[in-house]
């Protein structure tokens, strides 16, 4: 049979398929890759994806616009709360007992968030004992993924430490130069707790602010992680402080969009520090916020606007900063929402054990609340909840006795996913440095 002859039952030879260019995920441009990443459910999932290989990490880290857009679509997740060690009396002749803040995680179904918590150092084991101080630590602030802790007696030399539980490293201690902040004070000077100032665009950098006051003035002292030096700012007169009290500022601080707030002890005035200019100002609080039964905190809405969130009984209200016809900025009521119905649905019959809500803190469009009785009952633990300020919907988190201050810990954008991160990747073309618990 000739070459071109074939049996009628013989099949013709199969045609070779034409060669076509195949597209793999590594062929995607950075723009397409980032569009895919925008559809990931949470920051923890993004971190796991970005650290899978060096090109993906570089695509995420080199795009500030992507970071901003991802934050808009996916609010930074709450991982849990740090609680300060309970205050207990101890005889001064006895050696100080170890005391650490405790951490309570939220119960999330997101496996990536759960993995991030499991792989982190929320027991704060990275803190080493200070050579000259008792091993007792109080928590003062949680911000930008960092935890600010303080060691030592309030009226003696103290040391501070700033740690990131999700990227634990041995941190050098910060000696706070306690005596210098009171130089030039009038009467009995008092120092209040410290707060953290962090930058989203440079997560490796932070500042620590200490506030002091005397009879009628306030002063800020600022530590910079970049220079590791303190800068003492001048004393500033403020109006309206209570005349009968030397301790006329509350031992607390609140933050919102570059401003730090402290409230007078009589709840009449609020002192504001502009952290960009380091200038102080003071203004009277709205009349109904002066109610001792009113719990409130300053924070920001989901769109980034400064706001005050308050609670009276089971009603939560939101106030925004507005400019009136005379060009004067004031706090104006935006809305007030009764939450009785939602609490009935969440707590059922247990709701009768409580008669009010407390505002723990306000962050990034969420208010963190705790149920309470007007007369504290140690046998009746509080329920901690989050309230979305956009929808005014409650989410139950966990139950715990309130015996000390509470600080929400919110997952921050990892330093390794920012272009100006100070430590480069390894030369390996496929794997990233192990910079995150999900790695």
Report on the architecture of this protein.
By secondary structure, this protein is mainly β. The chain contains six helices and 24 strands. The protein has helices at residues 30-37, 43-50, 54-61, 64-73, 111-118, 340-347; strands spanning 78-83, 102-105, 137-143, 146-151, 159-163, 174-175, 190-198, 206-213, 217-224, 229-232, 236-237, 254-256, 259-263, 269-274, 279-284, 294-300, 306-312, 315-323, 329-338, 356-363, 366-372, 382-388, 393-400, 406-410. The chain is globular and about 105 Å long. The protein starts with 29 loop residues before the first helix and ends in a 29-residue tail after the last strand. Residues 421-439 have low confidence and may be disordered. Residues 1-23 are annotated as: Disordered. Residues 30-70 form the F-box domain. Residues 139-416 form the F-box protein AT5G49610-like beta-propeller domain.
The fraction of residues in strands falls at 25-35%
Shape: globular
Number of strands: 24
How would you classify the helix and strand content by structural class? Answer: mainly beta
The poorly predicted ranges are 421-439
Which sheet architecture does the biggest sheet show?
5 strands, antiparallel
Report the radius of gyration as a whole number of Å: 27 Å
């Amino acid at each position: 049979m000739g070459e071109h002859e074939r049996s009628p039952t013989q099949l013709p030879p199969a045609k070779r398929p034409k060669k076509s260019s195949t597209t793999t995920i590594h062929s995607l441009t950075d723009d397409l890759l980032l569009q895919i990443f925008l559809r990931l459910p949470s920051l923890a999932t993004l971190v796991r994806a970005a650290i899978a290989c060096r090109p993906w990490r570089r695509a995420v880290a080199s795009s500030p616009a992507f970071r901003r857009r991802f934050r808009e679509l996916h609010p930074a997740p709450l991982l849990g709360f740090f609680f300060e060690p309970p205050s207990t009396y101890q005889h001064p002749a006895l050696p100080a007992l170890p005391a650490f803040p405790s951490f309570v995680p939220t119960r999330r179904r997101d496996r990536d968030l759960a993995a991030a918590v499991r792989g982190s150092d929320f027991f704060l084991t990275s803190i080493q004992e200070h050579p000259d101080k008792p091993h007792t630590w109080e928590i003062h602030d949680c911000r930008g993924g960092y935890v600010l802790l303080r060691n030592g007696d309030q009226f003696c030399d103290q040391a501070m430490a700033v740690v990131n539980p999700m990227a634990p490293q041995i941190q050098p201690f910060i000696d706070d130069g306690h005596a210098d902040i009171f130089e030039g004070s009038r009467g009995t000077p008092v120092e209040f707790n410290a707060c953290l100032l962090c930058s989203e665009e440079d997560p490796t950098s932070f500042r620590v602010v200490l506030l002091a006051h005397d009879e009628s003035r306030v002063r800020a002292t600022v530590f910079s992680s970049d220079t590791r030096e303190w800068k003492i700012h001048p004393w500033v007169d403020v109006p309206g402080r209570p005349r009968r009290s030397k301790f006329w500022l509350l031992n607390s601080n609140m933050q919102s969009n570059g401003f730090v707030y402290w409230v007078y002890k009589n709840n009449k005035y609020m002192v504001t520090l502009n952290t960009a200019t380091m200038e102080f100002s003071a203004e009277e609080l709205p009349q109904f916020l002066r109610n001792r039964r009113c719990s409130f905190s300053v924070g920001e809405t989901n769109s980034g606007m400064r706001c005050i969130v308050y609670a009276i009984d089971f009603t939560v209200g939101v106030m925004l900063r507005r400019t009136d016809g005379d060009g004067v900025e004031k706090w104006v009521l935006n809305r007030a929402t009764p939450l009785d119905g939602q609490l009935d649905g969440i707590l059922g019959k247990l709701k009768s054990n409580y008669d009010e809500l407390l505002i723990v803190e306000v962050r990034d469009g969420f208010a963190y609340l705790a149920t309470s009785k007007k007369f504290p009952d140690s046998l009746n633990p509080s329920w901690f909840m989050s309230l979305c300020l956009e929808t005014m919907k409650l989410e139950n988190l966990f139950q715990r006795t309130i015996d000390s201050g509470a600080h929400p810990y919110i997952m921050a954008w990892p330093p390794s996913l920012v272009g100006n991160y100070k430590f480069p990747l390894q030369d390996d073309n496929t794997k990233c440095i192990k910079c995150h618990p999900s790695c």
